[in-house]
Amino acid sequence: MAASPKYKVYTSAGEYVAACKYAEDAAAVASLYGEGSTVRSGHRKVLFADGIDGISGGESVDDAAALIHERERA
Fold it and tell me: Is the CB of residue 64 less than 8 Å from the CB of residue 55?
């Protein structure tokens, strides 16, 4: 049985909208929901906030994913 995807995407209002296996996908989905949407590790730890961290997943999925991975390691 497969594990649940690691990355969870929430809107800025806190609504859970997606689960993604890859950080790049999660950043792209978060960008669809606009500034303040978040990518989390599980349902708690915020790894990326679209537009707030100085990066938009819509502008650079690779930069957003790099930030997500950096924060995971911290």
Answer: yes
pLDDT of the residue at 36:
96
Q: How far is CA 72 from CA 7, 11, 33, in A?
A: 11, 20, 22
pLDDT range class, residue 1, cuts 50, 70, 90: low
Domain ranges of the chain: 7-73
Per-residue pLDDT tens over the stretch 30-49? 999 999 999 999 999 999 99
Question: Does the pLDDT of residue 55 top 90, yes or no?
Answer: no
Print burial letters for 11-48: b (CB count within 10 Å at least 16), e (below 16): bbeeeeebbbeebbbbbbbbbebeeebbbbbeeeeebb
The stretches of 1-74 forming alpha helices (DSSP H) are: 23-32, 61-73
